[in-house]
Amino acid sequence: TQWVYFFGWHRAIFVFFLQLLSLLAFICEEVVSECTLCGGLYFFEFVSCSAFLLSLLLLIVYCTPVYDRVDTGKVKSSDFYITLGTGCVFLLASIIFVSTHFGTAAEITAIVFGFIASLMFLFDFVVMLCEKRQEGQLRKPENTARAEALTEPLNA
Questions:
Q1: In CATH, what class is 2-143?
Q2: What is the model's pTM?
């Protein structure tokens, strides 16, 4: 498919694991039956579900003919910022949930999956940032050579 061509197999597997971790964090959080300070639990629930759904939306765009109909630069840019935002908010939700959890096994498991998922989202962001910089460096020599040719006198 187009998505596998765009990202490669290693990226496809990585995004699949991001999906799985987000879903597992959400499921473990849903198993929690009692809470004393429920604000952290509810925020974690919202963030883990949102992370799963946003990532799923991007995967659907990449895997369907919609990808061919939209500007690929905008899709990559959206993916870049969604991954950064999701990683940061997921990490924040995990920290808040740690400070308000009751100590049940389901809560601790959800927290572990939350931290792993948030760190993986942030790692994915760093990988995309490095790829973006490499693309910029590959284009840079091309632009400087052309700029040098433009600064040469015409009558030389």
A1: mainly alpha
A2: 0.78
